[in-house]
């Protein structure tokens, strides 16, 4: 029984939270409100999946939010300037992927710890975003072929939900069911043993950080599409939530280890929590207070499992060999 609650206790708590808000607010279960919750979860979930993939290889990407903001600015600038939407979309994805690849090169070639490398990338991305916009957002009546990416629906579900499901499924299959995924996990849990076994651990770290950047780029494109605007720092509100989603996700399903299902369920739980607090009339600052408490509690609850997970011991200022 103890093992069951260790693995599923946090997920059950999230489900009870959902039920509690459903009983406390008559608006919570309305179609419109649930659509808002799932749409917000999509942005957070895709960004958090990128963070999770980097963490699987024992690397931390603190640049995901600023990279997403920069990619959104580039995407928005091109759409606003009259370029074809597919060009803008490709540019946004390319910016995110390139920033992730740059992080990977800094970590594996120049041996800069990922904590420092990604902080540097975040600062550069922030500066570039303000340089491209001069601090002014790109806003306009953009083509429906672009805004439909996020605002449309298919089979009765918002497109954002399908985007999240597709990215989540692809990431889960990659990590759990492919040889490449096994190499990513081995790199994170025991990089020296993995290297001696013939796994190209540095390549795995570069790949994981590049995928984190690609997820940031996709988040940026969807944000710009949904809001019909792009501005520096527009993804920053998702940064701490993304970290919290990954940490809380490590308390469920695979305690002590980053995992895609846990990240996705935690992202939904966090957005349900924020939405429910708003509906109950809580002041805005309570969301930040509760978010900080969740980050601390999730680390504390999974401390024993995290201590047994070898990859956690390498999350410091050293780089892997």
UniProtKB/TrEMBL annotation:
The chain crosses the membrane at residues 34-55, 86-110, 117-140, 160-177, 207-227, 239-256, 263-283, 289-311. It is a multi-pass membrane protein. InterPro entries: ABC_transp_permease (IPR001851). Keywords: Cell inner membrane, Cell membrane, Membrane, Transmembrane, Transmembrane helix, Transport. It is found in: Cell membrane. Its main location: membrane. It holds the Pfam family BPD_transp_2. PANTHER family: ABC TRANSPORTER PERMEASE PROTEIN YPHD-RELATED, ABC TRANSPORTER PERMEASE PROTEIN YPHD-RELATED-RELATED. This is ABC transporter permease. It comes from Falsiroseomonas tokyonensis.
């Amino acid at each position: 029984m103890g093992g069951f609650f260790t693995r599923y206790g946090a997920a059950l708590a999230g489900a009870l939270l959902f039920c509690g808000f459903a009983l406390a607010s008559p608006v919570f279960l309305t179609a419109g409100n649930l659509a808002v919750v799932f749409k917000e979860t999509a942005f957070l979930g895709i960004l958090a999946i990128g963070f999770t993939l980097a963490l699987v290889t024992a690397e931390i990407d603190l640049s995901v939010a600023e990279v997403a903001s920069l990619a959104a600015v580039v995407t928005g600038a091109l759409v606003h300037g009259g370029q074809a939407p597919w060009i803008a979309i490709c540019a946004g994805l390319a910016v995110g992927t390139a920033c992730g690849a740059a992080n990977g090169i800094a970590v594996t070639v120049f041996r800069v710890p990922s904590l420092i490398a990604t902080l540097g990338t975040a600062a550069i991305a922030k500066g570039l975003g303000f340089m491209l916009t001069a601090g002014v957002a790109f806003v306009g009546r953009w083509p429906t072929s672009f805004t439909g990416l996020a605002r449309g629906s298919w089979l009765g579900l918002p497109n954002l939900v399908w985007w999240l499901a597709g990215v989540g499924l692809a990431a889960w299959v990659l990590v759990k069911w492919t040889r490449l995924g096994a190499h990513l996990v081995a790199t994170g849990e025991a990089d020296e043993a993995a290297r001696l076994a013939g796994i190209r651990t540095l390549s795995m770290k570069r790949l994981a950080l590049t995928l984190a950047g690609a997820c940031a780029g996709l988040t940026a494109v969807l944000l710009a599409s949904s809001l019909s605007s792009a501005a520096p720092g527009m993804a920053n509100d998702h940064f701490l939530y993304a970290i919290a989603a990954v940490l809380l996700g490590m308390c469920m399903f695979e305690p002590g280890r980053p995992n895609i299902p846990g990240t996705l369920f935690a992202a939904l739980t966090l957005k349900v929590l924020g939405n429910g607090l708003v509906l109950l009339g809580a002041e805005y600052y309570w969301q930040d207070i509760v978010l900080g408490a969740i980050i601390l509690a999730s680390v504390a609850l999974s401390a024993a499992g995290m201590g047994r997970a070898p990859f956690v011991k390498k999350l410091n200022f050293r780089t892997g060999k």
